Amino acid sequence: xxxxxxxxxxxxxxxxxxxxxxxxxxxxxxxxxxxxxxxxxxxxxxxxxxxxxxxxxxxxxxxxxxxxxxxxxxxxxxxxxxxxxxxxxxxxxxxxxxxxxxxxxxxxxxxxxxxxxxxxxxxxxxxxxxxxxxxxxxxxxxxxxxxxxxxxxxxxxxxxxxxxxxxxxxxxxxxxxxxxxxxxxxxxxxxxxxxxxxxxxxxxxxxxxxxxxxxxxxxxxxxxxxxxxxxxxxxxxxxxxxxxxxxxxxxxxxxxxxxxxxxxxxxxxxxxxxxxxxxxxxxxxxxxxxxxxxxxxxx
Length: 299
Fold this sequence. Notes:
Oligomer: single chain
Largest sheet: none
Number of strands: 0
Distance between the termini: 20 Å
Radius of gyration: 20 Å
């Protein structure tokens, strides 16, 4: 009996551990970053600068408005980040085994990051759609507001009103954006850890802080154009004649280029960078500390 339990623990836990750790660290980071994410979405919806949006939200909607959509954000991390960080760990471990235990070159880490991002986004797309709609709801005219109570209410309403497949509306740009973000985030983190720890001899704390900072920068720089398109697709509403403003992500990209040029895709970049980089940093820091605690208790 004891041997059976031990076998199960050693067989199952190492497999699920990276997924559990990834999701937990992402959810903890989201609790800290949610207000900045809320401001970022409203900037992209054209409500003004970061300071203007924050003052308007406080004055008209109260402090709770900054945490509107938190349930969807946590659900997104429980699906998306669980899948992407867990998949990346599994993929890199397999690649290292195939590489005779030697560190992976950057391009292989990037490929693992691209793949992990696609897997995570495919799993997390419904929660991401619910999050975007809940955050954007207060910006719509009263007649068009959906008044979702929480993430699960949003998901059930979307399925009832638009069909199950509507949960993956905008999934194409979501997956592409996630691939870009995770290529920048995951590959640069692993590469930076090797640089700081192995080449420069930094301690654990400095290595994690430095690598997570670099990881956050590359995640933001690689992903914002895709995030802009994704947000536009997910929030669009039909006009009085029932016509949508964009037929798809490619159409949105072309129309955005024509109307505002390439820099239009970087609308809200300072706030986006401030939001993405700390979230990435906190995710890595939380993950590192979770792993330390697990190691100390023998997990």
